[in-house]
Amino acid sequence: EDPDAKFELTDEYVKKNFNVDTVDDYKKQVKDYLEELNKNNKTTDTRQAVINKLQEVCEVNLPNELLEARTSDYVVQFTNNNCTDGTTLADYLSKNYNGMTEEDFRENITNEMRTSLTTELILEAIAKKEGIELDEDAFADYVKQQMEVYAYEKEEDFYKANGVDAAAGEAYERKVFVCNRALDKVVENAKVAYGVEPKEAE
């Protein structure tokens, strides 16, 4: 083949490789995909910007007992999911996390949990103030959707993947669901300015 030859996109090529009939159909498919990707990225960025702002302006008293309990639960869950056949957590971390020690691992998780719990407590307070409660039907739809996305056949397996046991996982997912509804409420009412510096957007 001539390395300098120019590639030409043809109906025959796109039909064979992209399951569309014409080049125009292919271009529309790409355009729709990019627009949807941009929309999703914008939504994610907006929600994260709102979370960052809430963490900045809200004062939260995070009990040490809650932080320690959530960290310990995560470490147990991580160990149960990854340390099988007699492998210890120390061995697993050393092999898969560039020699990380259990102490460093726990410190990292504690920092992550501190941020996560701070956001959670803020959103729980907002949910309470706004009268946002768990909608059982909507929650069931959410669980079903998550199970389809992550290929879980049983609800119990889905919940076990998100807690030290099924009961803890379900309680956590119920809390996450309400917090997300609270975040939706804040995002709906937030004034978001795109393409400006953070201080200008405040």
Give a verbal description of the structure.
This protein has 202 residues and is mainly alpha-helical. It is built from 9 helices and no strands. It has helices spanning 11-18, 23-57, 64-82, 89-96, 102-130, 136-149, 155-160, 166-189, 198-201. α2 (23-57) crosses α8 (166-189), α3 (64-82) crosses α5 (102-130) and α5 (102-130) crosses α8. The mean pLDDT is 90.
Tags for this entry?
73% helix; 9 helices; single chain; mainly alpha; 202 residues
Structural classification: mainly alpha
- Count of DSSP H/I helices: 9
C-alpha geometry: extended
What gyration radius follows from the Cα positions, in whole Å?
Answer: 23 Å
Largest sheet: none
Order of helices and strands: HHHHHHHHH
Mean model confidence by pLDDT: 90
Number of strands: 0
List low-confidence stretches: none
* End-to-end distance: 57 Å
